[in-house]
Amino acid sequence: MSVTHEFAEAPYEGPLLEVDDLRTSFDTQGGAVRSVDGVSFTLERGKTLGIVGESGSGKTVLSRSIMNLLPKRGTTRRGSVRFEGNEIVGLSDAEMRKFWGAQMAMVFQDPMTSLNPVMKIGNQLKESIREHLDVTKEYAGELAESLLASVRIPEPRQRLEEYPHQLSGGMRQRVCIAIALACGPKLLFADEPTTALDVTVQAQVLDLMRQQQDERFMAMVLITHDLGVVAGRTDNIAVMYAGRIVEQAPTDVLFRDMKMPYTEALLSSIPKLNERSHTKLNVIPGRPPDLINPPPGCKFAPRCTYVQERCLEEEPPLRAAPTPGHRFRCWFPVGTPEGADALARNRARGGAPEPSVGAGASVGTAAAQGASS
Amino acid sequence: MPEPPPSDLETIVDDTADSGFFASGEEIQTAAVEAEPPRRRRGLGIGAWLAIGWLLLVVGGGTLGELGALPIADPTDVIHLHTPCPRVQGRTSCLINRLGPFAERGTAHGHLLGGDSIGRDMLSRLVYGGFNSMLVATLAIGLGFVVGGALGLLAGYFGGRVDSLLSGVFNVLLSIPAILLALSLAAFLKGQQSVTGGKVQSGFFQDPKVIVILAIGVVSIPLLARITRASALSWSQREFVLAARAQGAKPLRIMWKEVLPNVLPAMLSIALLGVAVAVVAEGSLAILGAGLDPTTASWGNIIAQGRGDLESAPHIVFEPSIMIFLTVLALNFLGDVIRARGDVREAGI
Question: Is A372 contained in some domain?
């Protein structure tokens, strides 16, 4: 905590972002909802980390928690987040403003709601620019125009005078990206940036972000529920479940040699083009667990096809796989003799042990209550 | 295939039911017509223009009168007629008092709207009174708009303890009957008149206009604050506010640049209704004796001073009442138009 912002003046050699045992919980009437529960990772300059998980796994809370954007009331945040070596957990909003926009920025999920409906595009861009850079109005205007051009918006000068509702969804998300890039952040959080967009423009927007990232040597945290989105666009992937990282690996390693049954289940639930039409989609039964009173043992156990007695009693630690940089949280990993044994045993018994599936269902309802409160 | 008139949705629906083969195509067309969002009207509509015209007439006429540019009598002058004076109850009276359109004693020649109880020209008093009434009402609501709007914005944006505290104050103010609050404020600000000498013992403000403006203004603060708070609360939850925060914008800037422009339509529409209520409130205060100085013409004062002659000369009360009625109507109508336009803009996004 003693490390202060003054250190940022000297070039910092370490990783850009170091998150260490970050825990974020929200106070509700039912108890504290532990949305982020002991997450650690590091992110180097210019690299991309994909955070993948289903709804309610804590992806969004994690990103907002790192940026310190969550409301102060009813939120507890512990652990450590170091940005260029500076501890930013515990900083006030006033202190965070040095980082927001200028050092780290965020692109939100829905460009319909993340732009002010009654402010011209140009003014929204210029607001951000003039907040951090000491420039004249005219220069801010030129900068705004070149930013719009750099996110490939045609006729940028005219667009500056338009309101958000005059643009299409893809255009609006480009504007949001331009705003986020306005002050040259070193780290960009993209919170499901393409979920609200038409499939045809998703790839365009993702490629644009990739290209801007390369040009600016900017690090990016790409949050999504779609493994397909992160597949070709990230250096590392962290899979989240129930507020924890359950598997973390370089992208190629993860897709080649996944260890965590949850990752496998996520991947198998993506529809494949070579399947016959009307093939039933694979689903992961049940719902994410209650984050107020999480079950003992592995949090995914109630929904897991590999589940054994041990999984329900003892939580697996995040342990290292033989491949460097690959960590996972499982007693019976995919593609190992133990995992194969476990799966064979469950198949012989006729699917996963019955009580655990039942537990999954009841836990699911509790989680739904927790999420709604 | 005959094209049904596109303007009439009913016709299209009927045609669709009859024509067999093309039905599906036309159903699609019908659906498209129905799905089309309500088109934003380009103009304001005739009603709004009439309302604006009336308000301009009242305010403009009053301003010109105050500047002395209108060829009408001084509102404080007691007018004598030059024609042979009528005999009233055995006495000749040359004043135009209680003469008017509906008066028992007939009209006063050359004075279109007649004279008031002591013989001052009604037209002139209505014109000058309109200026004063509108001035008092607008400034009072302006006070409420600025103070209430700022407090409401703070409460809505910050929420939590700030909101609890401010909302508590608003609720306490709202729980006191408005006219009672205004009356006691006016009395308090005016200072106490001693029974013996009638001398002003203590008074913060001497100008009765300022007193009435403050009294009505303070009453309007919680009303405008509540509306602003509610609207600001919902707009502050929007993602673009979070986005602005994530870009490093300061709270005041977010409130001013991001939240306020979105809240403004709701505030303006309520403020216009508020001006209408304030015009009436000024009249109420005048009737209760806490209004403007009795010599100052205002619609409220005219009614207050004319109500004794309601039977013999009803025009003294009727004429300013009609003025208030039309003005309040115009303001309400404009308020509605502003709110409707704000809604359409919001729905179109």
Answer: no
